[in-house]
Amino acid sequence: MTHFVLFFLFLNILSIGWSKSDADYPVYLRGMNWANVEEHLQEDLSLSDAIIPTNYIIDLSVNARGYGGADKSTFNGSVVIDMNFTRSTNSIELHSRGLTIQKVSIIGSRIDSAPLSVVNITHNKNRESIILLINRTIIANEEMILEIHYNGSSDLSEYGLHEIWNPDPIEPRFVLATNNFPTGARFWFPSFDEPAKRAQFQLRIDHSTEINGFSNM
Ligand SMILES: *[C@@H]1O[C@H](CO)[C@@H](O)[C@H](O)[C@H]1NC(C)=O
Ligand SMILES: *[C@@H]1O[C@H](CO)[C@@H](O)[C@H](O)[C@H]1NC(C)=O
Ligand SMILES: *[C@@H]1O[C@H](CO)[C@@H](O)[C@H](O)[C@H]1NC(C)=O
Ligand SMILES: *[C@@H]1O[C@H](CO)[C@@H](O)[C@H](O)[C@H]1NC(C)=O
Ligand SMILES: *[C@@H]1O[C@H](CO)[C@@H](O)[C@H](O)[C@H]1NC(C)=O
């Protein structure tokens, strides 16, 4: 009986012409009808595993709407990222969404050959990333420290660094808060915004003395 049922299913799959079955996909993609998802949506959006970020120093100035004369919530700052390379590459792709990238520089490196610099920055909207082209190939085991200056804006979008209004008539409250899950970090600082790319973080916030800053980092 069991054999018959399996055989029947097998024929059924063949007869509707599936070229791939669930078993052809990695375990984490099974059970989601992935084979029938349009091809352009199956594109692998993950970043290169050649680059391991090890430390971030985020320095952020925030202007919160209604405080210190600000008529909208904006932020600007810099992120300094230490990176190790496990394979050779001549580009660095990291996430950034809705941010204006002002300046990118290499401020330090432990290098095994010639000096290097960022020669081109391209934005990939689809991948929510920026791609930094380096003027030579970085080889495995080199390390590099990158500094990116950027700015952005906050709204009520519930994502990234966003505004929250609590219009309580007795105690109205305005909060500017981060929501990083699952891919919100890239909305407020350029980063390797993937769970596998863990690193240490230091955060410094400049803000109006009228508001308080808190962090659970
Ligand atoms: C944000 O921009 C202001 C004005 O240009 C500048 O003074 C400040 O240092 C910047 N903040 C950071 C954290 O870079
Ligand atoms: C990065 O490279 C340095 C020097 O090779 C090494 O000490 C450190 O453990 C590496 N860190 C990671 C997270 O791979
Ligand atoms: C890359 O840029 C650095 C800094 O400008 C420069 O010193 C180096 O010679 C350049 N390397 C190549 C291969 O062009
Ligand atoms: C940067 O690279 C992109 C894509 O390769 C290219 O279209 C663009 O012209 C380059 N920009 C500069 C300033 O070299
Ligand atoms: C970054 O700052 C510039 C200059 O003030 C502004 O035009 C731009 O809209 C800002 N970017 C974002 C994403 O808010």
TrEMBL record:
Keywords: Signal. Residues 53-217 form the Aminopeptidase N-like N-terminal domain. Pfam families: Peptidase_M1_N. GO terms for biological process: peptide catabolic process; proteolysis. The keyword Signal applies. The keyword Flavoprotein does not apply. GO terms for molecular function: metalloaminopeptidase activity; peptide binding; zinc ion binding. SUPFAM superfamilies: Leukotriene A4 hydrolase N-terminal domain. It comes from the Eukaryota. Residues 1-23 form the signal peptide. This is Aminopeptidase N-like N-terminal domain-containing protein. It comes from Pristionchus fissidentatus. The lineage of its organism: Eukaryota, Metazoa, Ecdysozoa, Nematoda, Chromadorea.
